[in-house]
Specification:
Blueprint: H1 3-17, H2 20-48, H3 55-80, H4 88-107, H5 111-130, H6 138-161, H7 166-183, H8 190-227, H9 239-253, E1 260-267, H10 270-277, H11 279-299, E2 305-308, E3 313-319, H12 323-339, E4 342-345, E5 348-350, E6 354-360, H13 368-384, E7 389-392, E8 395-398
Parallel strand pairs: 6-7
Antiparallel strand pairs: 1-3, 1-6, 2-3, 4-5, 7-8
Helix pairs in contact: 1-8, 2-3, 2-4, 3-4, 3-5, 4-8, 5-6, 6-7, 7-8, 9-13, 10-11, 11-12
Length: about 400
């Protein structure tokens, strides 16, 4: 290949990339990415408030959000430049759309985002064949298969890929596969394909470092919520708050004759939810159970406080109630829980059960730790009784 044929595309790329148009494209792309990031946490928060499984609605919401983002970018680009389809400026706009697709593939772990990424190249190439803009080519087919394979690998391994050197390998393969497909539709050379892939990687790397900062901000926010006394995932009080409240309760109630009870429950076989269906389902189970107990305790005017004290362990403090009075309340809420099947995935419902321990504050307790250790002991008695059981002051009974 003559040297001039290589230098010319490079010079054109430099002139196009370092231009005012690039700033406009970058601003639009960053704006859309910021909106999608806010949408991501907004969707999780919105649907996390509901007791029922809302996975299908979350998936639909994400498919619609991604489609709107892509259509918005296309409409904006067309409004700025009427004829961009086959221009080099149009190629730059395409890279901006690829950034949206790649970003969502890593950040939004949803099946609809996976299907959107896989379906779009098939749709674009198929439409080009129908419109006689290109003909079927084995190289284009191989590029499409490569793209689909990369999309699948990223979807399955995004959590560890994003913080490894392999992240940049997936960037390159994603970009080169997309541009190899478009090469069969648009008129471009191999050197242009490589330069456009490099441009995609450069812009995506900038976005990636921005995303690192966003993730750090979210972690700081989660820590702030934790420091403020609430569990980020479930929205109920956390272990730190439990320690403070249980110490206060001990100081007050150990010096008078008013009763106080503590219940502790654990989601049975919780590890199976994570191992068989993924941590996203496990998180949904935790949110669902916490929300159900929180709402029912409120509706029953118990004035009880719910805490998440461990992974799948929760405690409830009942002021001015004995264990004999608190146990029927916890069991009634548990009965509501087991009556409703939980959808772990399409067409598969499971029943969630819990093991429960309940005890009173005793005169013999020397500290809040003694109170807690006893209810924890009773919880494990219930768990050792084949789970789905309740132990009230050491009296264990199986629950149907």
């Amino acid at each position: 290949m003559p040297f001039s044929m290589v230098v010319s595309p490079i010079g054109q790329w430099f002139a196009r990339f370092f231009s005012f148009n690039t700033l406009i494209i970058a601003a639009i792309t960053i704006g859309v990415l910021c909106i999608l990031t806010l949408v991501s946490y907004g969707i999780d928060r919105f649907f996390g408030r509901y007791e029922t499984n809302t996975a299908i609605y979350e998936e639909i919401s994400w498919f619609v959000s991604l489609a709107i983002a892509m259509l918005f970018m296309q409409a904006t680009f067309m409004a700025l430049h009427a004829d961009i389809d086959n221009s080099q400026l149009g190629w730059q706009y395409s890279n901006a759309q690829f950034i949206i697709l790649f970003y969502c593939l890593y950040i939004v772990h949803r099946k609809t985002v996976l299907l959107f990424n896989m379906g779009l190249p098939i749709y674009i190439y198929g439409l080009a064949i129908i419109r006689h803009q290109t003909q079927f080519n084995i190289l284009n087919l191989l590029a499409m298969l490569l793209l689909i394979a990369i999309i699948w690998v990223v979807y399955r391994n995004s959590e560890w890929l994003i913080d490894s050197a392999w992240y940049y390998a997936t960037q390159f393969l994603f970009g080169v596969a997309w541009w190899s497909i478009l090469k069969g539709i648009r008129t471009m050379t191999v050197s242009q394909v490589l330069l456009l892939t490099f441009e995609f990687m450069l812009m995506m790397t900038i976005v990636h470092f921005g995303n690192i900062e966003i993730r750090a901000m979210i972690k700081r926010y989660m820590k702030l919520e934790k420091d403020n006394g609430y569990d980020f995932l479930t929205g109920v009080r956390n272990r730190r708050t439990f320690n403070e409240v249980s110490n206060e309760v001990f100081e007050v109630y150990s010096n008078n004759d008013l009763p106080v009870a503590m219940a502790m429950f654990n989601i049975d076989h919780f590890k199976l939810f994570n191992d068989q269906y993924g941590h996203q389902v496990g998180d949904s189970v935790l949110k669902y159970v916490a929300q159900l107990f929180s709402d029912e305790l409120f509706e029953r005017k118990t004035n009880a406080q719910l805490f998440r004290v461990g992974g799948e362990e929760f405690t409830i403090i009942f002021r001015n109630r004995t264990s004999a009075e608190a146990a029927p309340i916890v069991k009634a809420i548990r009965d509501i829980l087991v009556e409703k099947d939980f959808e772990v995935k399409d067409g598969l419902d499971v029943r969630i059960t819990v093991s429960i321990g309940v005890t009173d504050l005793k005169k013999s307790d020397q500290s809040a730790k003694d109170f807690y250790k006893r209810v924890d002991k009773y919880l494990y008695q219930a768990k050792n009784n084949s789970r789905n059981s309740m132990s009230v002051e050491g009296d264990v009974s199986s629950l149907s």
